[in-house]
Design goal:
The protein has seven helices and six strands; from the N terminus they run ββαααβαβαβαβα. The chain is an alpha/beta fold and 211 residues long. The protein has a six-stranded mixed β-sheet with strand order 2-1-3-6-4-5. It is elongated.
Amino acid sequence: MPKVKVYNLNGEVVREEELAPQVFDIVIKPVVVQQVVEAQLANSRQVLAHTKGRGEVRGGGKKPWNQKGTGRARHSSIRSPLWVGGGVTFGPTKLRNFSKSVNKKMKKKALAMVLTDKVKHDNLVLLEELTIAEPKTKLLVNLLGKLPVKDRKTLIILDKKNDNLIKGSQNLHYVSTEPAQSLNVVDLLNADYLLLTVKAAKKISANYLAD
């Protein structure tokens, strides 16, 4: 069972906390994490590129010239892909679907694997409590300066809504917040450090073991 140091708001180690081994101490399989990350990124992808086919381009209803008698090649519409300003053949369209599916069990396993990796590399920082008196960036910066997060990309995991922390972190490009019940693999991987309370860690474990 993994043990993690617990800090107070002054940055002092006050005790150690044992975390659930089913969530914070499992075998890491990079291929599983990779599949979940690829699926999450693909599912968040917006399809923006779209070209119009001959049926979507405006105009071209009238036949440009008679079928016979002109000596020129026959054409039915000036919006044919053969013409400048005509439709595009086999171009990218908004109907493309990049979504990928992974089952719920794999998502949960990948999440636990990333959490395990953070624990093994001492990148998960536990606190007895995590709060600031006012929604001010300065107060949050002072708090982070006392903790072993080294001004690196930090994800604050909340066990309940905390407006002071959420608003106080908005001006810090290297700090983000996320509720414990809605974590995802990409956000965890993007963070160098995870900052959470003991309650938040227990909430993550409870959500993981719920099903």
